[in-house]
Amino acid sequence: xxxxxxxxxxxxxxxxxxxxxxxxxxxxxATCPSxxxxxxxxxxxxxxxxxxxxxxxxNSKSLWKCLSCFACVERCPRDVKPGKLxxxxxxxxxxxxxxxxxxxEEIPECLDPELPQQLLVSAFRRYxx
Amino acid sequence: MSIEAKTEFKPKIVxxxxxxxxxxxxxxxxxxxxxxxxxVKIIRVPCSCRVxxxxxxxxxxxxxxxxxxxxxxxxxxxxxxxNYYARRRMTLLFSMLDYLGIxxxxxxxxxxxxxxGVKFSTTMNEFVEKVTSLGExxxxxxxxxxx
Amino acid sequence: MSRVQRIGVFVCHCGSxxxxxxxxxxxxxxxxxxxxxxxxEEYQYMCSEAGQAKIAEAIKEKDLTGIxxxxxxxxxxxxxxxxxxxxxxxxxxxxxxxxxxEHCSWIHKxxxxxxxxxxILAKAAIAKVNLNAPLKPGESRVTKRxxxxxxxxxxxxxxxxxxxxxxxxxxxxxxxxxxxxMSQLDKTFPTLDCSACILxxxxxxxxxxxxxxxxxxxxxxxxxxxxxxxxxxIRKKARSVDMDKCTGCGVCSEKCPAKKNASEFNRGLGNRxxxxxxxxxxxxxxxxxxxENCIKFKTGKCGVCxxxxxxxxxxxxxxxxxxxxxxxAIVAATGFDTIKLDDFDEYAYSQSKDVITSLELExxxxxxxxxxxxxxxxxxxxxxxxxxxxxxxxSRDCTNRGKPYCSKICCMYTxxxxxxxxxxxxxxxxxxxxxxxRTPGKNFDEFYRRAVEDYGVNYVxxxxxxxxxxxxxxxxxxxxxxxxxxxIRMEADMVVLATAIEPEAGVRKIATMLTASIDNNNFLTEAxxxxxxxxxxxxxxxxxxxxxxxxxxPETVAQAGAAAVKAIGxxxxxxxxxxxxxxxxxxxxxxxxxxxxxxCPYGAITYEDREVNDHGIRExxxxxxxxxALCQGCGACTVTCxxxxxxxxxxxxxxxxxxxxxxCR
Lengths: 129, 147, 665
Description:
The complex is a heterotrimer.
Chain A: H1 5-15, H2 27-31, H3 42-50, H4 54-58, H5 62-65, H6 71-75, H7 82-96, H8 107-110, H9 117-127
Chain B: E1 13-18, H1 22-31, E2 40-45, H2 53-61, E3 66-71, H3 82-100, E4 107-111, H4 117-134
Chain C: E1 7-12, H1 24-32, E2 37-43, H2 49-62, E3 66-71, H3 74-87, E4 95-99, H4 101-105, H5 111-129, E5 139-141, E6 145-149, H6 153-164, E7 168-172, E8 187-188, E9 193-194, H7 195-208, E10 212-215, E11 218-226, E12 229-236, H8 251-255, E13 261-262, E14 271-272, E15 275-276, E16 288-289, H9 295-299, H10 304-308, E17 321-327, E18 329-332, E19 336-338, E20 355-357, H11 358-365, E21 386-393, H12 410-424, E22 429-434, H13 444-453, E23 458-461, E24 464-469, E25 475-481, E26 486-492, E27 494-499, E28 501-503, H14 507-514, E29 541-543, H15 553-571, E30 575-577, E31 583-585, H16 595-599, E32 605-614, E33 617-626, H17 636-640, E34 646-648, H18 653-664
Parallel strand pairs in C: 1-2, 1-3, 3-4, 6-7, 6-18, 7-10, 18-29, 20-27, 21-22, 21-27, 22-23
Antiparallel strand pairs in C: 5-30, 8-9, 11-12, 12-17, 13-14, 15-16, 19-28, 24-25, 25-26, 31-34, 32-33
Helix pairs in contact in C: 1-5, 2-3, 5-18, 6-7, 6-15, 12-13
């Protein structure tokens, strides 16, 4: 997995965010409860993605300081969802750190009729490389 | 490639252009001296929604090799909604023609505004090239109309 | 129906524009051989006087019935040749133009190719003319009276301009007084004129003008007809006060015991009595009884106002009255309101009385407002020391909560508010949280810079995430400064929200009545965004003010004048010539299915029961009827018609097919 452009693409893909929609209003940063703890601020997440600088995001403190409260996603007037972006970056890191956390062989045990199909798909996306 | 002089196939193209946008766009292409093949002949209609699928079938029947309909951009129709109707009709018609075995490349809908002379000539150039590559229209042509 | 035509073909050299790459002589020769052609000639400049004379001569000599001119684009000279032909005595719609310049000579360098194409284009035009029928534009009358819907500054200005030109105008306003939003403002940017001072003279002028009639507390109920000949039903709602008797003394409102009704004029910040005039300078200065909150109407008891009225003007029995009037032109000037803030909980608008909208602030700062012009917190009446303004609340918002557009006026009015507060109360700290500052008008940017540089308003680039009311009554504002990259947490006594504006409620109903186009944001659509900004695509309907798009007062007044001019242009005509290339129905083929009615963008098709004689069978059938004054000739109905009953004159099915045949031969 190489750093750089492909990683940015991956982040965009995982999060489903269109970073061009951002109008740089700062509402996300204004709402964020963890703002002071972060080194890269929420309103900067999008610029980093636009500048293909996924590396800085991925190595930042913000990645882990983000509470995933999604207040920024709620408040963003452009539907840019910066919280999802940082979530996506986190996923990239998690996947990178080698583990396939989900082993397909374990699945049949966990299955029950109430389990929605979507859960399996989502789990595979999150916990496997 | 054969050495003997072969008469190059020149397709017959009929273009329906709406009076307000695409016809003006064609005029602009002309004023700007932007060339496109002489195979294209334009018929003026008040709106792209005037184009009855029967006209297109008639064109093919009488020997046309390609038909293109040009109208205003969605949202800009002089008659507000005409181009939306045209878009829907043509989608259905082309789908039917496809089923009949008329190649999709022989028909086209393009939105050209009055300021897009370049787009008009580029579109015509591309379309003629495409139809030329597809060759003569033999499927819908009515042999009795061949002179 | 085909007629045997005698067609004359005239091929223009256009100097060398055509002749250089098209063999015009050959084109004329080949045209001469076509069916119906009895005359063909070429000339240097057909559009010149000499050229037109040649056409006239040929018409006379050869008894021509149809003309084909092979020349430049019809968009250039179709009218020229139509006029020439009409002068020579033939119907102007017997002319067709073959465009052999823009579509041929100017783009094809190869003369042989160009000539061949020109010949084919000429053949197509000839084939079409063979099937042309003389067309006569219809005439419809013009009622010389205009209707203006909406009595704000836009409606007033439009009405004044139309009235000054000598035409009668009626203004219909749904609130009890004209004046609109401008009457609610305190001072206006960029001049800081007192709003009432510049508005009331216009209001008085409108009410005094002999050509203007004002119907307040009235609404448009129904519109029928078409351009030049609209019939409108106006509902004059019952004021419960006789307008002819009332002297405007105001004693009734004073003595009315039902005083706790939220004042609409003061945006709910103050109260009014059940019998009230909205504001002191109201025109007409006649009160209205709010029957839903009037004790007499609710319980049958009271009647104080009637007792104290010296003029005996109170009339509890008054009923709504519907009047019907005819108009030639209608101008929509329905204005705007601010959006509801139900979806913006982060600003605590509903939780704290000290979080207000900018329009509410205007009322607070206005000397005639709920606080008599004193800037005070609405919760406890104390003077604020820290005021925070938040821009773009609900504007530029592409989620469901807000509006996607920029509301245009907020950056300027916030700068105005900030400046006025700093001027009057220099100890008060004012902070403005913005995304962009948009101040494009004349003297606008200078105005905003004065607020920053001369009046010390603190502009912070960033937004506010949360406004939290504190137990001690203050407000905690959490925002961000993007340039310093810091989150700001500050205490504020008052927070003012610059909310988005949207078209006034009820505009959709009006648009439907007028069959005027309206967009997804409820703004009325103009005929062309650049070149025709004050006309609706529907003929005879004009747009004035914010109902067409967000704008400030200078732009509104300018647009109001423009709309007035367009209306005057229409009213000045004694009759309207309608486009003759309209749709026609073959009544024998029509099956009454309404498909055409549904696709017509102009509502030009209606259905009527008509007796038809179908080859001897007489019966009444439901047949489509096209209103030639409304039909614009787009042809949508012709293709939609499943029975082939609909056809378009000037571009009939047979004509187009003849052109197709000629090209494909």
